[in-house]
Design brief:
By secondary structure, this protein is an alpha+beta fold. Helices cover about 65% and strands about 20% of the residues. It has helices at about 1-50, 55-80, 85-90, 90-105, 125-145, 175-180, 180-190, and strands at about 110-115, 150-155, 160-165, 195-200, 205-215. α5 links the parallel β1 (about 110-115) and β2 (about 150-155). About 20% of the residues are buried. The mean pLDDT is about 80. Keywords: ATP-binding, Kinase, Nucleotide-binding, Phosphoprotein, Transferase, Two-component regulatory system. InterPro entries: HATPase_C_sf, HATPase_dom, Sensor_HK_TwoCompSys, Sig_transdc_His_kin_sub3_dim/P. One of its GO terms (molecular function) is kinase activity. Its EC number is 2.7.13.3.
């Protein structure tokens, strides 16, 4: 029992240290690289407006589109690394903000629903739950081959229940658990905050991830 407790404390400390470094990198991406690229983007727009050659206009337009896509990807990456609204507004508002960028980047619609009234939870719990949902949605974008996901939050008197359900091609959970550190990390993150993460999937029918966090 003592060994398990010590292991949890060490894991929590490592994750907390990682989150602090991630926060710093996210800020540099947003305020440094992102702002620089946006300046280049507006400069290209100015050059395009003054160009008379159709070939040059087309070339500049292609560069604008590439830059715009890159800026969007950096914005998503920055939010993925550290959602700025998570600490100030809470889990659900931060997730709504993230989902807008997620959909515009991957073209996957996420149907968000909520039952009950959101209550404040500790920051480390917020981060852990956000990271697990983030990992789940990232896996959907990479592997599920679907354009639709449902995400539900249910606030109970004794806890928070979350279900992430995609309607993609599914996978063999046992085989994936042996190969994927991401799935194991999801379960471990929830365990560190005394929560649960259950993963089920059916080939050609999709995947369901159910989380429960006691409050």
């Amino acid at each position: 029992m003592e060994f398990t407790k010590a292991k949890k404390e060490i894991s929590s400390y490592i994750i907390q240290s990682q989150e602090e470094e991630i926060k710093r990198i996210a800020l540099e991406l947003h305020e440094g690289v992102g702002q620089t690229l946006y300046s280049v983007y507006t400069g290209l727009q100015f050059i395009q407006g003054g160009s008379l050659q159709p070939e040059m206009k087309n070339y500049i337009h292609e560069m604008e589109q590439l830059l715009e896509k890159t800026i969007q990807e950096i914005r998503l990456l920055s939010v993925e690394l550290h959602p700025p609204t998570l600490a100030t507004l809470g889990l659900v508002p931060a997730m709504k903000s993230y989902l807008k960028l997620y959909t515009s980047t991957y073209g996957i619609e996420v149907e968000l629903s909520m039952v009950g009234e959101e209550v404040p939870i500790p920051e480390n719990h917020n981060i852990a739950v956000f990271r697990v949902i983030q990992e789940a949605l990232g896996n959907v974008a990479k592997y599920a081959d679907t354009t639709h996901v449902s995400l539900s939050f249910t606030w109970y008197p004794n806890g928070l229940g979350i279900i992430i359900k995609d309607f993609g091609k599914g996978f063999n959970v046992k085989e994936a658990m042996e190969k994927s550190t991401g799935l194991a990390a999801m379960i471990e993150r929830m365990d560190l905050i005394n929560g649960k993460c259950e993963i089920s999937s059916v080939i050609d029918s999709g995947t369901s991830i159910e989380l429960f966090l006691p409050l």
